[in-house]
Amino acid sequence: MSNVVNPSRRLVVGRGFLSAAAVGLIAGAPALAAPMGAKKDASSADVAILNVALALEHEAIEAYQIGAESGLVTQAVLPTAVLFQSHHKAHRDALVATIGQLGGKPVAAKKRADYEKSLNVAALKSEADVLKLAAKLELGAANAYLGVIPSFMSKDLAKVSARLAADETMHWTALAQALGQSIPQAALTFGA
User: Are 16 and 54 in contact (CB under 8 A)?
Assistant: First the structure.
């Protein structure tokens, strides 16, 4: 089994790109992120990619925080939202640690007002609106992780990406259920 990653392959995620190695780092498995024989120091491009991923994790964490503090989310839904936020915090922490280990400077979270604007928080008027926003973010993450699996040369990295996609799909499924949405009727719904 090869642990070599083709660093030229990139995954479009939201407004940025993630390499196959970055997915390993996001999963909290930095040992999987480096090709065999690679030195610990990463190129500035790899640090930049990891900072894009970190910025996206900051956004997800803040989205859940905004939702929790909005007064729109019921006590029945709040514990699940907090759990999902904790998953994103774990991703953030792994990225911060890895960026630091690579000699980079982790990008800081934006101000609350910036997230409120980019997430169009003013449009959130109900619990359903908050859940729809979260579901949209989680579906995008699930599809991104599924989309990168074919890029991996390492079966270990493909497995990590699949596990992340499964978690994001689980998040989406719980949110869709809370919204009263039916189970997708078509096979092969995710990753398309």
Answer: no
